[in-house]
UniProtKB/TrEMBL annotation, chains A, B:
Keywords: DNA-binding, Transcription, Transcription regulation. The keyword Transcription regulation applies. Residues 35-54 bind DNA. This is TetR family transcriptional regulator. Residues 14-72 form the HTH tetR-type domain. One of its GO terms (molecular function) is DNA-binding transcription factor activity. Coiled coil: none annotated. The lineage of its organism: Bacteria, Bacillati, Actinomycetota, Actinomycetes, Kitasatosporales. Gene3D superfamilies: Tetracycline Repressor, domain 2. It holds the Pfam family TetR_C_43. InterPro entries: Homeodomain-like_sf, HTH-type_TetR-like_transc_reg, HTH_TetR, Tet_transcr_reg_TetR-rel_C_sf, TetR_SbtR-like_C.
Amino acid sequence: MQQKKDAPLRSDAQRNRERILEVALAELTHSADAPLSAIAKKAGVGQGTFYRHFPNRESLVLEVYRYEVQQVADTAAQLLETRAADRALREWMDRLAQYAMAKAGLADAMRKATSARGTLAGLGHGAVTSAVTLLLEANEQAGTIRPGVSPDDFMLAIAGLWQIDPHGDWQQRAGRLLDLVMDGLRAGAPGA
Amino acid sequence: MQQKKDAPLRSDAQRNRERILEVALAELTHSADAPLSAIAKKAGVGQGTFYRHFPNRESLVLEVYRYEVQQVADTAAQLLETRAADRALREWMDRLAQYAMAKAGLADAMRKATSARGTLAGLGHGAVTSAVTLLLEANEQAGTIRPGVSPDDFMLAIAGLWQIDPHGDWQQRAGRLLDLVMDGLRAGAPGA
DNA sequence: ACCTGAACACCGTTCAAGT
DNA sequence: ACCTGAACACCGTTCAAGT
């Protein structure tokens, strides 16, 4: 039987769900292919309960990753209020890079579990797309980037971030990539 | 017991190895997580034989992908002989895109089986790096791109190619990405 | 030196029985 | 309505026996 649409979960089910997500974040960050059975056990629920909440690995990983990424997305608006559009864009990219490095293990889990190509792409139209749209529009209006760049274009351009090794000097590599992307975006801008 | 270093394989072993690779290419292209046991069976070898040649999934996928990618890499030199440096670079990127789309299933297998971040990165320093080095140096000398771009920079910049869906209008998406990258590379070029 | 295939271990998924 | 945990299926890996 399916869950009635939008019916609130029973309180014990609600708690189970949250405990699973909590444990999953920790476990998947540590090792991208942590067994689901181990997550269930650490969360203190039976196998069946686990599968009631998350019918497959993909749905679990997606949920965890979505929540984590949302947090970076939300900072975009704030940056735009305190800085010039192009500075805000670049700084947001830096934060995204920092985040991608911190959650590298989770991103690996994403890649392996999802059939989606790319970690951000898997989230579909969500908080990240909104944030990027906001930033690009502000820059286009300020004349700091060339017109007609779509959020999709942008996400493809920075895709390299997720294949930088979080150990070693990722700061250098990420910085050089983002500089290159910014130069690409600036090419053909009205205010140049 | 390990294989003696560089000792040639016995002829039947040689044939088995080739048949495995052949079947693996077809099978992995069709479905990224085709069972190794199915590959072994289709190749007509026992489980043990399979594992003698490829001790884990990663080593198999790596070998298949390496060989496939090599073919595109090899066209770089040829392009440089018949075209201006920047035209050659751009055209090579187009071919790489075409290739990435044709072998999308295999690339998925790469991502899932390898711990390496990114499909090209997993190959390490090989034919691709050589090709890119060649192209970048030619362009730097021609003054068509800014100096100091490393092969690593370049590969990160085009990483988005592998997360384009091979169905639908990938031509558009790839084209826009590569245009953006080219603009980024041109920024700060002496001959501008 | 290389091959085979049965045996083993592990993990995802299902389901009968419970509250 | 939700939970449990044993049972099942599948796949990667090993290994004793063979040529």
